[in-house]
């Protein structure tokens, strides 16, 4: 079995310019909050799709934090590789008011450094899909927080995430983007 190489996004780097489609057919740029929200950060949640009950539960849980995130200046969008019709069908089981988008392409999944899975059967879905990813893009358009998983069982706990974002956004904390330190090869210790 061969594995496709993946390139993970680095914390602090510019978030890639990716455009997806909302159910109304309007384009939406990922990583760019909607002007009408008055926010300057964007939480981009990539979910597996309609076929995943864990994604449905996570999206519905995220709705419970929508107002709190808005208060600290963070807008939300959730996106999957589902088709428009699959997204519309999925909305009947979702209780969310934040924007949803569809049509995430293989190329976009790779640009985000996501793990990609093949459907196990036609009953699961009819296309390759991204495993979960969560990206928080700051006001400069840089990746401030990143979480990528290779399965639906491992995702950030939402209360902890929101508390952490509140801490980061507090100007009194001067909290930098973490994980940007690159060690010179000569200082690495191998066992």
UniProtKB/TrEMBL annotation:
<dbReference type="GO" id="GO:0016491">
    <property type="term" value="F:oxidoreductase activity"/>
</dbReference>
<dbReference type="InterPro" id="IPR013766">
    <property type="entry name" value="Thioredoxin_domain"/>
</dbReference>
<dbReference type="InterPro" id="IPR000866">
    <property type="entry name" value="AhpC/TSA"/>
</dbReference>
<dbReference type="InterPro" id="IPR036249">
    <property type="entry name" value="Thioredoxin-like_sf"/>
</dbReference>
<protein>
    <submittedName>
        <fullName>Redoxin domain-containing protein</fullName>
    </submittedName>
</protein>
<dbReference type="Pfam" id="PF00578">
    <property type="entry name" value="AhpC-TSA"/>
</dbReference>
<feature type="domain" description="Thioredoxin">
    <location>
        <begin position="9"/>
        <end position="167"/>
    </location>
</feature>
<feature type="region of interest" description="Disordered">
    <location>
        <begin position="1"/>
        <end position="36"/>
    </location>
</feature>
<dbReference type="GO" id="GO:0016209">
    <property type="term" value="F:antioxidant activity"/>
</dbReference>
């Amino acid at each position: 079995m061969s594995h496709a190489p993946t390139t993970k996004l680095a914390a602090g780097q510019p978030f890639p310019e990716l455009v997806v489609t909302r159910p109304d057919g309007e384009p939406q740029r990922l990583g760019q909050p909607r002007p009408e929200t008055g926010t300057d950060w964007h939480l981009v949640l990539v979910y597996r799709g309609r076929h995943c009950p864990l994604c449905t539960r996570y999206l519905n849980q995220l709705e419970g934090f929508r107002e709190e995130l808005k208060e600290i200046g963070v807008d939300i969008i959730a996106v999957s590789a589902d088709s428009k019709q699959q997204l519309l069908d999925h909305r009947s089981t979702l209780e969310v008011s934040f924007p949803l988008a569809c049509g995430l392409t293989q190329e976009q999944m790779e640009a985000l450094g996501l793990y990609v899975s093949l459907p196990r059967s036609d009953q699961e879905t009819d296309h390759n899909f991204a495993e979960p990813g969560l990206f928080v893009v700051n006001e400069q358009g840089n990746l401030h927080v990143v979480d990528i998983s290779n399965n639906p069982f491992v995702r950030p706990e939402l209360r902890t995430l929101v508390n952490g974002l509140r801490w980061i956004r507090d100007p009194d904390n001067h909290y930098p983007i973490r994980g940007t330190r690159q060690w010179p090869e000569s200082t690495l210790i191998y066992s």
